């Protein structure tokens, strides 16, 4: 049995000490550390990277602090539309959903699509019908209502602006994701989001697009992104990191830095990513003010951080 490692993010954006209260910081750190310990416990007992990233993302989807699952932001039409994806680095199998409503844990639906269908990517009503047939839990609209997120949306609902939720106003929230290496040497990645505040209905970001917001390949690394999806889509960010390793022999750190701190900056794409390679090295670069993040390898204590 080999080394194992896990990392997660809870979104990147204009997250500064000045925009945070001590109380809120404690809550964020507790949620990040609970989630990383959930995934770590699965890996420590010999579980798979896929199970670890799924459980970690479920833990983050269940807290209203982050823009995924329960905490999803409002669309232009005052609803919640969620995107998510999961990928297995060993088999290159993947499952993804876009624009689903009412699903408590979209990441569980992506896992069901990956494990129990011949498809990779489902959207809207078809995805929800598949969910019903696979005992995925639904919640009423009220479950997803959060007063702070409603206030964020109210500030921009009459405009054409759509914003990274953690860049709006005082309160910061964010897309969630996890990447892991298990003791069997397999990698996996998972990402889940409510998208961007005031996004047009049926707008889809980078999160569920395999190769843009989410990617895993045992030959290179596992990656989960967060940031302005329109840029991450066009820059094919996650696959670009993997390609730099595969075709140019870059280390994980070099590949991540080139994509996030150089290419994306020149392109104008705000955000960051988390990545792990098959030796258990972790990289968590971001070009924004902050990124909610945590990591834990083998028997180390959890590392939790928010700012630069
Ligand atoms: N990447 C997500 C999107 O564009 C947003 C985020 O990461 O917060 O939908």
Describe the structure in your own words.
Mean pLDDT is 92; it is low at 168-173. Helices cover 33% and strands 23% of the residues. The chain is of the alpha+beta class and 308 residues long. It contains eight helices and twelve strands. The structure holds aspartic acid (ASP). Aspartic acid is lined by residues 11, 67, 164, 174-175, 193, 195-196, 205-207, 213, 226-227, 229, 232.
Concise description?
With about 300 residues, this protein is α+β, with helices and mostly antiparallel strands. The chain is about 35% helix and about 25% strand.
Q: What's the count of strands? A: 12
Structural class: alpha+beta
Our measurement of the CA-to-CA distance between the termini, rounded to an integer number of angstroms, reads: 34 Å
Q: Which overall shape is indicated by the principal axes computed on the Cα atoms?
A: globular
State the helical fraction: 25-40%
In N-to-C order, the SSE pattern is EHHEEHEHHEEEEHHHEEEE
Residue windows where pLDDT falls under 50 for at least 5 positions: 168-173
List the helices and strands and how they pair.
Blueprint: E1 5-13, H1 22-44, H2 49-61, E2 82-88, E3 94-100, H3 106-116, E4 121-123, H4 124-133, H5 147-156, E5 176-181, E6 187-193, E7 214-216, E8 221-227, H6 229-235, H7 237-248, H8 252-267, E9 271-277, E10 282-283, E11 290-297, E12 303-307
Parallel strand pairs: 3-4
Antiparallel strand pairs: 1-5, 1-11, 2-3, 2-6, 5-6, 7-8, 8-9, 9-10, 11-12
Helix pairs in contact: 1-2, 2-3, 7-8
Bound molecules: aspartic acid (ASP).
Give keywords.
308 residues, eight-stranded mixed β-sheet, globular, binds aspartic acid
